[in-house]
């Protein structure tokens, strides 16, 4: 029988994330993994802009809060200056796949030895639900009130697929947080990525499919079902690249 | 006695930075500053530092932000168009109270402008390096040696104030070859790391947070603190050269390359009996207000603002100290066209002999 407890890296303050938002769960998974790896004092959370910036209030470890989209650049500087620290950036889809596209692709291409955790909920939550680069075709947002139309806005961007095409990244994987199975896989994936970073393997990238009940205008339970029927068929979960799998085969 | 070397201005800046403790550089290629990243790309690894060629100026300044947060002395360099891109990151450095050295080897503007030297970035450097109403201390050397001396101690100011420092030097001085005397390598250990830095938490029992985001009352108080810092700079940190002012009837105000050319012209005019002197701001911010304000305006007949940009950008700062006690003339070249000895000499001569009345 599992016992509920506040995860060690989560500050002792009420959560301001919207009810049913999976950011809380994602943050908790990261916290649990850091605790399991004994990295509480060594982890550095590079905090991006958007709802993710609320981590400034909820994260009890060391924080470096940075400009919109620039977390992979700031993490590059931090990690190069202090390679011993466990450095991770937690970015949303607007932050990572729109304004920060150059920074994420270039950090991945350099094989920087840190971990990016990418929370993909297909919307700009903090600013009120505008279209994101990952918004699904037909998905309604405040800037696509009739649904996203690829004729004028293109297609939702698949970051794992893009990043796994680069030679340098060591581990690239996508998990969906709308089921217990997906949550367990995500926890294992985050742990693997952090361990690979500690082993100096290079760039690791974890995409977490999440939700936004407030801006999707669905109940929390409905968002989980929406993810099953809409998000997951487009953003296929799985491991896209794992250099340690090759090592294991050899 | 320091080590003497014949160096390009840009390379002298790079070596002085290393000796001043710089252990991280990120930058993006742009003329006329390329010798700085090129030099540091091999030099920093020699001393255990890190060099990253960023994917953009924006990324580069944010890499500096990350390195500086770890307590590492970090810098970036660029030229006008790239400094505009770095504006975001420089503002964030100021907000997060992170020290850093930013070097602008300036060229013709606005826009992509020209790759030839110009002094077109004075207003950007001194008034608004980014959004939000902050300032950085701005050093404007006029020789490779002065660049070495200012860069060597740049982090002492940056760490004291927890604020970025800007070196503004035009492409002439960046590419000029001069003899420089290099200071010794500063010996910095982990014990010198600033207490606020996000170095490994071993031995530190509190949470470290560096952020450019604040609640409103805290942001207000931080801005007020910054205002006090800027006032303190005016009291303590103004650097200025006053040249032949004792009997001067006309006073040139010029910095950087314009001051070098103006000095030649002034010496020539002195030989011909014209009483011309010069005030050379070495810090553009804080601006040497007192030097201009306290001139004897019963004797001084005119101020001549000489800059390698058109229209002159320092004029308003000068005017606030002259207070209409004498005319302010201006002479300049722009767009990458260079000031030359004869041009400056003839412009000043025309003013002092009354041929030019365009106050």
Report on this model:
The complex is a heterodimer of chains A (250) and B (359). By secondary structure, chain A is of the alpha/beta class. Chain A has a single domain (23-249), classed as Thiamin diphosphate (ThDP)-binding fold, Pyr/PP domains (Rossmann fold), CATH 3.40.50. Chain A has eleven helices and nine strands. In chain A, helix 1 (23-36) packs across helix 8 (180-198), helix 3 packs parallel to helix 5 and helix 4 (93-99) packs across helix 5. Chain A starts with 22 loop residues before the first helix and ends with a helix. Chain B has two domains: 3-236, Thiamin diphosphate (ThDP)-binding fold, Pyr/PP domains (Rossmann fold, 3-Layer(aba) Sandwich); 240-352, Rossmann fold (3-Layer(aba) Sandwich). In chain B, the strands form three sheets. Chain B has a seven-stranded mixed beta sheet with strand order 3-2-4-5-7-6-13, sandwiched between helices. Chain B is globular. In chain B, helix 1 runs parallel beside helix 6 (144-152). In chain B, 40% of the residues lie in helices and 20% in strands.
């Amino acid at each position: 029988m599992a016992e509920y407890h506040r995860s060690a890296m989560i500050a002792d303050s009420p959560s301001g994330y919207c009810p049913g938002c999976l950011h809380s769960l994602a943050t908790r998974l990261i916290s649990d993994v850091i605790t399991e790896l004994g990295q509480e004092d060594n982890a550095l959370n590079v905090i991006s802009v958007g709802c993710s910036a609320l981590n400034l209030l909820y994260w009890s470890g060391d924080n470096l809060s940075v400009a919109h989209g620039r977390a992979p650049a700031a993490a590059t500087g931090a990690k190069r200056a202090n390679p011993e620290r466990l450095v991770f950036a937690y970015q949303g889809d607007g932050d990572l796949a729109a304004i920060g596209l150059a920074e994420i692709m270039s950090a991945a291409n350099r094989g920087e030895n840190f971990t990016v955790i990418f929370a993909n909920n297909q919307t700009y939550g903090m600013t009120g639900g505008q279209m994101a680069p990952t918004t699904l075709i037909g998905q309604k947002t405040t800037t696509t009130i009739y649904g996203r139309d690829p004729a004028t806005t293109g297609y939702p961007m698949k970051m794992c697929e893009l990043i796994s095409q680069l030679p340098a990244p060591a581990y690239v994987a996508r998990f969906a947080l709308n089921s217990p199975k997906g949550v367990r896989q995500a926890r294992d994936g985050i742990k693997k990525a952090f361990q690979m970073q500690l082993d100096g393997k290079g760039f690791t990238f974890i995409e977490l499919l999440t939700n936004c009940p407030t801006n999707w205008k669905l109940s929390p339970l409905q968002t989980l079902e929406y993810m099953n029927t809409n998000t997951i068929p487009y953003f296929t979960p799985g491991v896209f690249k794992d250099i340690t799998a090759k090592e294991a085969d050899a | 006695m320091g080590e003497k070397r014949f160096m390009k201005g840009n390379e002298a800046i790079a070596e002085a930075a290393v000796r001043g403790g710089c252990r991280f550089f990120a930058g993006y290629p742009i003329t006329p500053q390329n010798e700085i990243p090129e030099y540091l790309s091999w030099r920093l690894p020699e001393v255990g530092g890190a060099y990253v060629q960023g994917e953009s100026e924006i990324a580069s300044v944010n890499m500096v932000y990350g390195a500086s947060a770890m307590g590492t002395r970090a810098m970036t360099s660029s030229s006008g168009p790239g400094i505009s891109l770095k504006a975001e990151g420089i503002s964030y450095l100021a907000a997060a109270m992170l020290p850093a050295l930013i070097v602008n080897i300036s060229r013709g503007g606005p826009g992509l402008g020209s790759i030839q030297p110009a002094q077109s970035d004075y207003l950007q450097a001194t008034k608004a390096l980014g959004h939000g109403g902050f300032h950085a201390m701005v050093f404007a050397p006029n020789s490779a040696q002065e660049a070495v001396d200012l860069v060597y101690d740049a982090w002492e100011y940056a760490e004291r104030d927890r604020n970025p420092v800007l070196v503004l030097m035009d492409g002439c001085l960046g590419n000029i070859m001069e003899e420089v005397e290099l200071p010794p390598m500063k010996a910095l250990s982990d014990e010198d790391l600033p207490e606020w830095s996000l170095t490994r938490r071993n031995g530190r029992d509190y949470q470290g947070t560096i952020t450019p985001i604040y609640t409103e009352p805290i942001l207000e108080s931080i801005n007020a603190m910054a205002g006090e810092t800027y006032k303190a700079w005016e009291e303590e940190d103004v650097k200025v050269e006053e040249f032949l002012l004792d009997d001067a009837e006309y006073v040139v105000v010029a910095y950087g390359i314009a001051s070098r050319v103006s000095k030649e012209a002034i010496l020539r005019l002195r030989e011909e009996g014209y009483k011309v002197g010069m005030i050379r701001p070495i810090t553009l911010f804080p601006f040497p207000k007192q030097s201009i304000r306290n001139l004897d305006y019963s004797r001084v007949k005119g101020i001549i603002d000489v800059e390698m940009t058109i229209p002159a950008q320092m004029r308003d700062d000068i005017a606030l100290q002259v207070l209409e006690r004498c005319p302010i003339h201006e002479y300049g070249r722009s767009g990458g066209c260079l000031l030359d000895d004869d041009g400056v000499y003839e412009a000043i001569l025309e003013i002092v002999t009354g041929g030019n009345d365009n106050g």
